[in-house]
Every structure is written in structure tokens, then in C-alpha cells.
Amino acid sequence: MNHFSRLPDEVVEIIVEHLAFDYRAIQSFSRTHRRIFTLIYRSLDQHLWRALFLRRYDDPRLIDRFSLVPFDQQNWRSHFQGRVVAVDFLAHLHASLPNIRGQQEQRLIWIIGSILQSSAPTIPFLHIHQHPIHDHGETSFVDAYRSAPLVVPFPGEGPRSKNIEELSDVITKDIICSMYLSLLSPTTTSMRGTARLCTFVGWNSGEMNSSYTETISLARRRVFDMSYPRKRTLYGPWQRQRQPHGQHPQTLTIYEYKPDWPQVAALRIVAEDMLWLHPDCYAVLTNLYSLRPGTLSVDTLPPEERQPDISGSKPCRDWAGVEGVWRRLVVWIDYDALLLYNDDDLYDDDVLAVAQTHGIFPVRMRIVSARDDPDAPPGFPTLDIEGEIGGESWVDNDTDHNLDIRFMKGSVSMLKDGTVRWSLVSYVDVTDSEGQWLSEGIQLGGIGSMAGILGMWTGANHLRDDPVGAWWQWRVA
Prior knowledge:
By secondary structure, the chain is α+β, with helices and mostly antiparallel strands. Helices cover 32% and strands 17% of the residues. It has an eight-stranded antiparallel β-barrel, surrounded by four helices. Strands 1-2 form a two-stranded antiparallel sheet.
């Protein structure tokens, strides 16, 4: 006689819950008796699968107010099984990556990225408050810069994330190195799942080995390609969503674009290559915990309160964590070297490595208005912003207040795929008469994450020989 068949349903469920980290054991247990199999797999109630999910992963309902699409609570089982299969796939993936280019493999790697991006929000520890650094007077930008740190360290204690703890054990350095090499190879076809995961995780190995040398070389080829920024890419790392049958590309709005993830992954490693020279920044921004939403104080709405605007008036809620003082890492190379680098006959990666340089510049941003745009997703109006940024000759010697300060304006939008797009233009002065540089970037991780914004910059006037480069921006006050 099968003794398991005599167990009350409540006891069976307790046993199953304790097997949350060993799904094969759940499958084996379900085969011990038809009644147990029915209780686990054929129940009309999702409460057992919800319990399994929450025992192993962060509660996804906690990030609903940071997400465009709320979590589907009718499918706890499929969400749990999908994650378990994806994590098991990554855990048993050999560093040689025999085959990750198939549609099924990319779907599983995409799920891994989604687990990271859906990590439970942390308690905000970077708030907007009344302080001289938030005074937007013309003379306060230097004081704001000098009053804020280069990076805000994580607090000593904070709520744990089950998602990040689980993935920290399976995302190995060897796997990420191999993924980057496979992704950036010139012969690689679409690998959006891999590219997205590499964007979130980065190189983050601290090892300047032969694999790194090859990877950074391939990444530079993408980032410093002067032919990449075009109107069809919005002069940034974007691509059009697949259009419905019969829809003309000209009818697409900006909200129907999505990240060009292989390009963004290349931007990540080029920026990280320079960030490595600043250990305090590197330690914070490359930590997986920096991807969690809500590190910054943001003003988002829960899904049930999001309604299309019919009055033509939207409140200026800072749902993206715009307002405050930021730091921006900018990566570029000498223009003459850039021209040589883009000439196939004169290309020399060693020359580029020497010519590549960077700087960290202060930025301050504020919201001007919330745009009345019917195409914007409900609850996430496009924010028009302005501010100041340190110019090319910015050097702070603690005595000279005649620093190179440029005016900046732009917008922050929620795209229809859930990506937050930052589009910023810097000007020589506040007259807006001469746009200089255009910066296009995406929010890394969740809304209000410490990881900040990653993107590419180029000329604002879209000239054929405009330079290109990478940037990474994070808020510090």
C-alpha cells in the first residue's frame, strides 16, 4: 500500500513546498500516487504554485508599480516552471557554449534576464530632499557637484533578493566571457536574450585575460562605428519593433522602438572597461544588486491607478527618478584615430586602445513638464527635462569657479516593450541655439535602480562624420 496516498492534502502541500529548490524531486513525488499527481498538477487552484514560487523567488507583485505590465497572477505554475527550467539550463551550460543560438535557448536566457530585472525592490535610500544641491539657481551647479559624492555606496544592511542570490550561483565568469565572445562575433545572428543578459551582468570579472582582450576589441568595433547612428536607429541603440502586417514604418511612434541589445551589450563592456579605473564606482555599479528597482525615490503609480489622460493635463510625477545630481562617465577616442579606425584599410585596434579615453562629468536634471502624448503608456507620461552638465573642458581645481558648464534638455519615455528611454541633448548655452551632443540611453535594471543609464552619444546635428562613443550615468544625490 502506498502510504503517501493516506496523507492529508495539507501535509502533501507542505512537503511539496519544501521541495521548491528541487523541481525534479517534486516531479518524482507526484508519481508516487495518482491522487498526489492530481493535487499538484491538476488542481484548479494556483495557491500551491504560488507558494512554491514565493518560497524560491522574490514576490513579483512587489514590482508592479515599477513595471509597464503587471504580473499575471493566473499563471504561477507556468512562471515557476519557466524559471526553474531556465536556471537549470544556465547551471548546466558549458563554458564552450556549444549551442545557445537557437530560439529555445534564447528564450531561456531571456527568462534569466527577466529574473534579474524582476528582483524585489529595495527600500529607497537616495531621496530627493531640501538641500542646497537641489537649488536650481544658475550659480549652484558647482556647489551641487562638490557637495555630492562620486558614487553612493550601498547601505550596510538591506532586504535580500532571492532572485539575485540564486543567479549569483549560476552566472559564472566563464559563461559570461563565452557569451560575450559569441554575441559580438561578426558572424553572429540575432541573440537578443544573450545580449540582454550580458548588458545586465557586464564583464565584471576583473580579469584582463586573452578573452577580455578579444571581447573588448569586438565591442569597440561596434561602439565606435561611425556609420551606426542613423535616423532609423533614432541616432541611438534602438531598432524598430516588428510592424503588424500592412503597417508602414513611417507610422511608427518612438514608443514602438526597442533596444538593439547587441549594441547595448557592446556599450556596456566599453564603458565598464573605463569604469574599472574607478574602483568605488565599479564596485557599486557592477553589483547585481544595483539592478533592483526603487533604490532611488521615484513616484510611480500602481497598475489599478493608471488611466489614459483625457483632460490633456498630466501631473509631473517623477516616475523615472530624474530629479537630482548625477555623475556621467563618457568614453571617446581621439577624432583622428576614430577616422582611421573607421577606415577598413587603416584599421588598427592597438591604435584605438591607446587613443581611447574617458572622463566623469557632473550632471543635474529637473522635470519641466509631463507631455500630453496619447501614445505614451498610461501611468508613464513622457517627461520633458532640462539641466546642466559639465562640458568637454570641465576641470575642477577647487579654486576656479569659471568652469565649463553646458545646458541640457531632453525627455524620458516608457516604450511599449517596458524599456525606459532617455534622450538628452547638450547645448553650448541656455539659448538652445547650438545643439552639440545627443545622448540616447536605456535604464539598466528596474525603474529607479542604482545601476543608472547606459547608452551612446553622437553629434546632435546628425552630420555624416559625427563622432560616437559610450556613456554611463548614475545618480548620487
